[in-house]
């Protein structure tokens, strides 16, 4: 019986790895359901959470085999915390929508379950010497599929707009432009590493195609996240190539130099075309909007009592109030998220002890329509409270700390191109999670992050 169970878990480890390859197809089904069938219950949601449920069973079976009780205690604790969160919101929230609360809890818990599942699956595949046969190839193939869809959608003029209003950008046949930009931004360093690894000869330069296609997709989406991933990753790769030349005596110098030259040329090319791409247009639109809002505010202010205005003008500005340029930059980076953050702080300050401990639920203690901050760590904290957020982020903290320890113990190895670009991918993911969200709270994106972290 034990052998049969072991075979089943081995198959499931392989299934989890190959499941990454099918993410773009699930996202296409989501778009079809939302735009054509007008259904909010999509195949993507159902399949992803069915896999999450079976992954919990897989984890329990694997950890029973390993006799690791701490792991099972964590899964049980997570279940208790999520239940207490739902109970707290039911008891103390004025406007309570059960379906929204459950859906939001499921979305955020998805990253935790899949992180633990991929770490377990990759360990098993590594022991069988099969991991490198499938990963990161599945990330590369999934990214290529996304890029092909983007190209076909644009050639046929059937692409969905990345933004609902004003701003430019296309997201192919994928519904959520922000999520699409985030997952490609996370995958981009891994795709670039694979390109540099494989293009070891002149006749293999075609391996640059996945990288070029990914750059194309990131640019036409029109998000700052996608553009930022390119601008950060290419210089890091360029510098790391020369670090690797210094430490690696078995290198092919000619190909290293050629790949470094292509990387630099691609970076310079992106800089040159920046004024002509969607992200530049969107930045201009955003700045014009901020200027318009500032003009409206100034007009409203001028209608006030002139004597009071004169007195206020003589009072030196508080150091706590940012200057206009700082405020403008802040708005440009966070796109208004700080307004919702301030609102959540007020909600949390007024919340009772139970809500502070176990969270205010989806949208906080809203009065009209629920709205998230779209900054993952803040959303998790306010939705689940002190205790809930700690339990949900504990695996990320634990494995992040272990990763830092391994890096410190293997400092020379970390300077290799492979590890630098994988770390760049993780850093981009965490940066996006903090600034723009849609990483830990979006199952379609979090699976890329957790699988790369697990690897």
Question: What can be said about this structure in brief?
Answer:
This protein is an all-alpha fold and 455 residues long. Helix content is 76%, strand content 0%.
What is the helix fraction of residues, given as a range? over 70%
Q: Main sheet?
A: none
Give me the Rg, rounded: 24 Å
Uncertain runs with pLDDT below 50, 5 residues or more?
306-324
Class by SSE composition? mainly alpha
Could you describe the 3D structure shown?
There is one protein chain. α1 packs antiparallel against α3, α3 (43-66) crosses α4 (69-92) and α7 packs across α8. This protein has a domain at 1-134 and 336-409. It has 455 residues and is mostly helical. It has helices spanning 2-19, 23-35, 43-66, 69-92, 98-127, 131-134, 137-155, 177-198, 209-221, 224-247, 253-273, 278-302, 306-314, 324-334, 337-350, 353-358, 376-409, 411-414, 417-435, 443-454. The chain is 76% helix and 0% strand. The radius of gyration is 24 Å and the shape is globular. It contains 20 helices and no strands.
Give the secondary structure arrangement, pairings included.
Blueprint: H1 2-19, H2 23-35, H3 43-66, H4 69-92, H5 98-127, H6 131-134, H7 137-155, H8 177-198, H9 209-221, H10 224-247, H11 253-273, H12 278-302, H13 306-314, H14 324-334, H15 337-350, H16 353-358, H17 376-409, H18 411-414, H19 417-435, H20 443-454
Sum up the structure in keywords.
455 residues, mainly alpha, 20 helices, single chain
